[in-house]
C-alpha cells in the first residue's frame, strides 16, 4: 500500500480513538474538567502522566539533538529524568495533600495573597505557552511529513484536532486520551528502534545495542558502534560524537535547569490531583517513572543510530581515499519526500547531481574537500526534529513502521499540548476569573469560560508554532528554564520553609522570571534596541558561557535568594499558615501537627 495512504489510515484510526474517548469521558462538572473528578487509578494516572510529560521534545526532538550533539545532549536525558524524580519525591505528594485544583491556587492560599496567585498565573502562562510552542512544532513536523504539505498547514491541522478533544473532554477526557496516546507513542518509538538495532548490531534491545559492536546485516566488524560512528563523522570533518564539545558549567547548569524546571511544570503537577489519595499520588509517580524510562533508555540508541544511518545513506563511500575518487550516491527517495516540507534542504553547488555532506567550517577538511572538487556542504538544512520520524525511512524499514512512527510523534505532541492547554485554561478560568475577579460565578459559567480560554490558548499556540524561535527541544528547554526560575522556588519554599511569606514569594517569582526572560531575549537576539548591535547567540557572547537554555538554574537561584531575604526582612506569615505548612509535610496520623 502507498505510504501516504497507509499513514493517513493509521493516524486517522488513532485520532478517531482519541476523539471517541473524549466524547465518552466528556467533562460535565468543573471537578471533572480540572482534575478528572479525582478518581483515576494510580497505574492509569502513571501512564497518562508519562504521556503528558513525554512531549514532542522527548519523542521527536530529543533523539535528533542526541544525533547531532552527541555527548552534550546527555544533559537533556539527565535533566528531564532527574527532574521527574525530584518532582515525585519533593512536590507531588505534598501538593496532593493540600488538595487544590491548580498550582496558582496552592501559591495563593499558602502565601495568603491574591497578588501571589495572580503572579503565579502569569508565570504559569509564560512557561506553558513557551512549552506548547514546541508541541505545535512537533505536530507541524509530523503532519507535514506524511501529508506532504507545507509545515504551516501541518500546524493548522494539529490545532483543529487538539481543539476537538481537549476543549470537549477537559482533564477527564484528556486523561483517558493520554493513556491511549502513551500506548501509541511507546509502541511507535520502540518498534523501529528494535528493527534498526538488529540491523546495525544484531541485538534486538537498543539499550544493549548501543554498547555492542557494529555488525551491519549480521557482518561483525569488531568495532563498537559508537567508535564506528566517531570514525564516520570525523572522516567528514565533524567533531567526535562521544567527545564533550560545550563547556562543563553550561552542561551542568542546563541539566540543573531542566531538572528543577521539570519539577515546576504545572501541567505535570496537576496530574497528581487526579488520584483519590496522597498514597495514590506517590504510587502513580512511581509508575510514571517506569513508563518514562522505557523511552528515555531507548533514545540514546535511536539518536546515535539515526546519525550513522544518515551519513551512510547520503555518503556511503570511503572519504579521502588514496586516489581521491570519492564515491557518492544520488539523492535518496526519503530526502526528496522531506524536501517538500521545507524542513530539509540541499544545494548542488558543484552541479554533479550528487550530495556532499561534511563540516565546511573545519578549515583543514574544507581545504581537502576543495581539492576533490567539493564546493561546500550541500546539505544546507536538516531540522533536528525530523530525525526520529525520518529514521525508519532512512533505514529502509517497511511502510507500516513509518506510518506508526508518524502516529506516535503526533500522540506525543498532542498529549502534552492538551495538558499544557488545560493548565493555561484552568489558570485563567479558575484562578483569575473565579478566584480573583468573579468569586460568585456559577459552575456552568466557569466551565464555559475554561473552554473559551482553552480555545484562545490553542489559537495563540498555533500562531507561535508556525513561527517558532527554534527546534522543539530548544524551545522546550526555554520553557523549563522559565518554570525553574519562577514556579519551582515558590513551591519548594511554600512546602519546606514556613518562614517564607507572601512578599518574599511575590518578589522572588518576579525577580526570577524577569531575570530569565531578559537573558533569553537578549542572547536570542529578540530585543530590538535602536542604535545597538545585538550580540550573536554564540558561546563566546554568553555570560560566563551560560546558554539561554541553561539560564533558568541561575534564575531559580535569584528567586530563592530574593524570596529568602525579603521574607526575613518582613513580618512572618500568620500562625495558621505556619501550622498549615507543618501539616502538609507530616503524614496523616504521624503526629500532633495533623491533629490526629
For this structure, what is the CATH class of the largest domain?
Mainly Alpha
Secondary structure category: mainly alpha
Task: Write out the strand line-up for the largest beta sheet, numbering strands in chain order.
Answer: 1-2
Radius of gyration over all CA atoms, rounded: 25 Å
Q: What is the total tally of β strands?
A: 2
- How many discrete structural domains? 2
SS field, number of helical segments? 24
Give, in order, the helices and strands: HHHHHHHHHHHHHHHHEHEHHHHHHH
Fourth-level CATH superfamily of the largest domain: Sodium/glucose cotransporter
Distance separating the two termini: 66 Å
Portion in strands: under 5%
Q: What is the overall pLDDT average? A: 79
Which term fits the overall shape?
Answer: globular
Under CATH, the topology of the largest domain can be stated as Sodium/glucose cotransporter
Note poorly predicted spans. Answer: 316-329, 529-533, 589-596
The major pleated sheet works out as: 2 strands, antiparallel
**Helix content class:** 55-70%
